[in-house]
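Section: Multi-chain targets

For targets with more than one molecule, the full set of components is provided together so that the structure can be written out for the assembly as a whole rather than chain by chain. Components appear in the order listed by the source. The example entry contains two components.
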Amino acid sequence: MSAYRPAEIGMPLADVDTPALILDLDAFERNLDRMDASLKDRSIRLRPHAKSHKCPEIALRQMQRGAVGVCCQKVSEAEAMVDGGVPDVLIANEVVGVPKLRRLAALAKRARIAVCADDSGNVTALDEAARAAGVKLDVLVEINVGANRCGVAPGEPALRLAQAIARSRNLRFAGLQAYQGAAQHLRKVEERRAAIEDACALVRETTELLEDARIACERVTGAGTGTYMFEAVSGVYHELQAGSYIFMDVDYARNEWTESGVPRFEHSLFVWTTAMSRPTPERAVVDAGLKASSVDSGMPRVVELEGAEYVKASDEHGVLRLNGNVRLAVGEKLKLIPGHCDPTVNLYDHYVCMRDGRVEALWPISARGAVW
Amino acid sequence: MSAYRPAEIGMPLADVDTPALILDLDAFERNLDRMDASLKDRSIRLRPHAKSHKCPEIALRQMQRGAVGVCCQKVSEAEAMVDGGVPDVLIANEVVGVPKLRRLAALAKRARIAVCADDSGNVTALDEAARAAGVKLDVLVEINVGANRCGVAPGEPALRLAQAIARSRNLRFAGLQAYQGAAQHLRKVEERRAAIEDACALVRETTELLEDARIACERVTGAGTGTYMFEAVSGVYHELQAGSYIFMDVDYARNEWTESGVPRFEHSLFVWTTAMSRPTPERAVVDAGLKASSVDSGMPRVVELEGAEYVKASDEHGVLRLNGNVRLAVGEKLKLIPGHCDPTVNLYDHYVCMRDGRVEALWPISARGAVW
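Its structure, encoded as tokens over all components, is:
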């Protein structure tokens, strides 16, 4: 983490230098409240994905509102969360290779840690790492419920892997990881609902086999911001891993959200940028390019400036097309909504947290770059 | 910069944990030599773009081979270069806003610094910042030679801005920035040649006006890896800003390179990754996703594993499609060529520098994240 501080406490937004990652605290807290309210009176736990924010300050606020812990994708991300005071982390992913397994087992001495597996050789390696560290590790079987990424097939293959975990002296079978990642950005509500119904059928097929084999499945975990309400009401999931709901982004905003009971989360995360060039009436160039706002899921969106569209990103430039008589002088600052919040957050060392137009806090993104 | 060290000196590649950014030093040095040889006996200077590598260790090696200094895109990048011992930096970009202009002027006391401008108000602000710091700043006029990003129009508008700079008490008109960024990835040699011929005509139109106005234009600077030989032989450019030639990437490899005199640069930069899941015979998942290899210009490419194609990136997963009987077990490591080197470098804190299969050095990417 660099020594650079992007802003000082109390500073008005206009004085915050650019590019900076701005968090609107009121909007962020409303999103926390909306999630809370949408799960009220439901017997389902929230375990938000920390890969979205990479920030213990945020994880702890999620836990203050009832989250049972967080998910991470990498051991290094989990280490940053535990270092920041988070007591319960599910690595919702496979962890492979001796150095990482050693660190994972060591972390399990400091916090409640669980991890996923989809390979019997990896289960053996997890058992050995747990033995060497003198810990008992919680391991979930990841099943493929339609994302076609990691995960064993539901049904018999999942049962066999659960049995292998249950037989391992230093491991404990802790449930099923069943994340339907491919469903999150299906644009229509009905498509997302159908994809999660299919996923639920695959989970049920597996939990019934586990039950027949007298292997307790204490936890089925999955879901994202795009679908979580379907998992919440499914009766088969126990934990929800939504992450992006706290921020939202352009890609999630493209989803239709007409389902009753699904709250409208609002944009709370912005890239603050300066118009650095006004070469023609139809073009402005801002100082936030693809090293300031990830374009993997499309361009960022200009807000609060009618007629301006962000059309092209290079490393350190964003080209805006201006339609009509848009007023935007060199040196003026504006807000962008990132195309995809997770990798955009990973480009910064701090959130500049704003309330009532002033900087209230700087929250370190301490798991920035934690890919190992 | 995190305290994490991705490898130890002397370690064999197989032991380097993943994801890691690997630099093949022999290939890197051959690329330096190729650039050197291609410019031998030509009266043109090389000023490589440091936005590609963000690493003073690399900048100093480029200068040892005859580069006159480096380019940067941001003041913070230039600060990192000067801190690392680079004595001569051109910020090949506009710098806007009082805090950045103050830092720019302060930096000009520590190194030879030049900056670009395309706006008369910005010229006034540069003059004021230089006055306040007690320095004389070199300012180039950026002209639009076809990239349609920043830059005033060539000809009269450029002349007027050069006159404004020349009139400013604390500035010195230092030439023209004329980078044709849109030409770099035109796939056919003839398309790139034609684009640079057009750019040269626009430069000439401008330098002739400057000459008529008795304003000395000591430097025309521009070019990238895709086109630099055309600028080199043009007779109108004095400095080349190629950056990616040291690493190459998948996007540049898609260019045709049949022109005699243009060396074939080779891939020296790789993302080292582990197969973390083998769910089906046709699919493997690696631990390098879009937070480990930027996908803004397309997917990374698998090397040294026939029949494997990287087809989909999520945050921390890369999905490989395996055609035929590809052997790749969970835990095996492989190399990827990044789709786009610049933003991929920006995801790491170190280059793991390899020679003869062992780690020779770790070079800090000290300008990582330097966007401000």
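Chain B has a mean pLDDT of 96.
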